Amino acid sequence: MTQLSEGSAGAEQLALEFGGRTHYGQLIAPYLTDDVRSCSFCDYLHPLVLLEGRFCYLTLAIGQIVRGYAQICPYAHRTSAAALEAEEVSEVLTMKALVRKAFVTVYGSRGVVIENGRPAPARWGAATAANARSLDYHTHIHCIPAAVDIRPDLRRVATEYAVGSMDDLRALRTETFAGGPYMFFETVEGEGYVYPIDGLDLPSQFLRTCVARRLGVEERGDWRRHPGMEMIAEARRELVPVVRVLWEQTGDQR
């Protein structure tokens, strides 16, 4: 478990500013100040985790645009959902369906899904020319309990392709845009769309900002400035019982 490092004045200040000397405030603060020196999704924060599977885990996001904002992450260091192995894809799809059911129960909406995929199926430390720009990135599939449509925003900056599943995403990425980076958006109804972004100079946290802007809380798009620590404890209390009952019903416990 990550703790505040001694002498980390910036992290200590942020812990006080965003959550006081609370459990979650102290855990999250090093991530807000870049005091963490390992991959934050490989070396993940267990108190934020809602569910652990065999190949993936479900965690609350640092940067709660709305309460309950969660992320599905593979244990292996992959740089995009399009680079997942078949077993990982299967569990991601199971978790995605599960968390959307939980969102309906707790928040009354299936929510939407977003992902920012980087080039190449990189693993941590595998410094090759093809994936060198992506080795610091561990893919995480964002599940957001809000009925929002950001397709108009994405179509303004990139070409839109419809995809039916993550397997389709892998094929489209390989055959149509040569393994490059992309944005993915899945609607409340479960329709998937992918947007290749190779060569585009998009601002950091572009997808999150699009969602936050559509919800009228654009400032929450920046997870470092608005980590939403005040929402995390309540979201955990709301979601854990529902998520774990649904997981037991799948018969696929770790």
Structure description:
- The protein has 254 residues and is α+β, with helices and mostly antiparallel strands.
- It has 2 domains: 1-37, no CATH class; 41-250, HIT family, subunit A, CATH 3.30.428.10.
- It is 35% helix and 15% strand.
- It has helices at residues 9-19, 23-32, 86-107, 151-155, 166-176, 206-214, 229-250, and strands at 49-52, 56-60, 70-74, 112-117, 141-144, 161-163, 182-186, 192-196.
- Strands 1-2-3-5-4-7-8-6 form an 8-stranded antiparallel β-sheet.
- Helix 1 crosses helix 2 (23-32) and helix 3 (86-107) crosses helix 7.
- It is globular, with a radius of gyration of 18 Å.
- The two termini are 20 Å apart.
Précis, in short:
By secondary structure, the protein is an alpha+beta fold.
What is the CATH homology-level superfamily of the largest domain?
HIT-like
Annotated CATH topology of the largest domain? HIT family, subunit A
Briefly note the structural class of the backbone: alpha+beta
| H and E order | HHEEEHEEHEHEEHH
Quaternary structure: single chain
Biggest sheet architecture:
8 strands, antiparallel
Q: Per CATH, which architecture of the largest domain?
A: 2-Layer Sandwich
Question: What is the CATH class name of the largest domain?
Answer: Alpha Beta
Fraction in beta strands: 5-15%
Compute the average pLDDT: 80
What is the tally of helical segments? 7
Please give the order of strands in the largest beta sheet. 1-2-3-5-4-7-8-6
The counted number of beta strands is 8
Unreliable residue runs: 1-21, 121-135
Query: What gyration radius follows from the Cα positions, in whole Å?
Result: 18 Å
**Termini distance?**
20 Å
- Tally of individual domains: 2
